[in-house]
Amino acid sequence: MSISVNSSQFGEGQTIPAKYTCQGENISPPLAWNGLPENTQSLVLIMDDPDAPVGTWVHWVLYNLSPALTGLPEGVATGGKEVADTQQGLNSWKKPGYGGPCPPNGTHRYFFRLYALDVMLNLKAAPTKQQILKAMQNHVLDQGELMGTYRKR
Q1: For residue 48, what are the domain limits?
Q2: What mean pLDDT is reported for the chain?
Q3: What confidence category does residue 84 fall into, taking pLDDT thresholds of 50, 70 and 90?
Q4: What does the pLDDT read at residue 73?
Q5: What CATH number does the domain containing 53 carry?
Q6: Cα(90)–Cα(77) distance, integer angstroms
Q7: How sure is the predictor about 21, in pLDDT bands with cuts at 50, 70 and 90?
Q8: Which end of the chain has less neighbouring CB within 10 Å, N or C?
């Protein structure tokens, strides 16, 4: 993984500020990245929680992000095409857009994974994480991740 993913609001393995959770404004945190391969055609960003009691819980899915982007601002809107030609997939609440950390118990880990692809994805509207992962097969040039944690107060 040579792509570096970071946030100005929390570091690797650190607590995600409450502002970005169900106990705050529930808006997406600012993210930045660098180190994309030269022939990147699109990016996919997936945020999920592998510690959820029902299995991995998907919080956010963005695909067809422009490789010209070096990050995302705080509070990317839910639904629609708010960042260039970016499209949003369905989270585990079966809605497009961001759903912040809201663990039922204990401290959970939240992974923001960025994938550099050699294609734009041609998918029907509001695909699931699994549909996006399937479409990405054999097209991932590189990836990077940022992991933050959260525990309800």
Answers
A1: 4-150
A2: 93
A3: low
A4: 92
A5: 3.90.280.10
A6: 14
A7: very high
A8: C
Residue 43 amino acid letter: L
Which residue pairs, CB below 8 angstroms and at least 24 apart, start in 10-19?
A: 10/148, 12/146, 12/147, 12/148, 13/147, 13/148, 13/149, 14/148, 14/149, 15/148, 15/149, 15/150, 15/151, 16/100, 16/101, 16/110, 16/148, 16/149, 16/150, 18/153
Find the angle CA(126)-CA(127)-CA(131) to the nearest 5 degrees: 175
**Which burial class, exposed, middle or buried, applies to 8 when counting CB atoms under 10 A from its CB (0-12, 13-18, 19+)?**
exposed
If pLDDT is split at 50, 70 and 90, which confidence band does 85 have?
A: low
Do 47 and 127 form a contact (C-beta atoms < 8 A)? no
Tokens encoding 61: 């899915």
Whether 41 has a pLDDT exceeding 70, the answer reads yes
Buried-exposed string 72-106: b where 16+ CB fall within 10 A, e elsewhere: beebbebeeeebeebbbbbbbeeebbbbbbbbeee
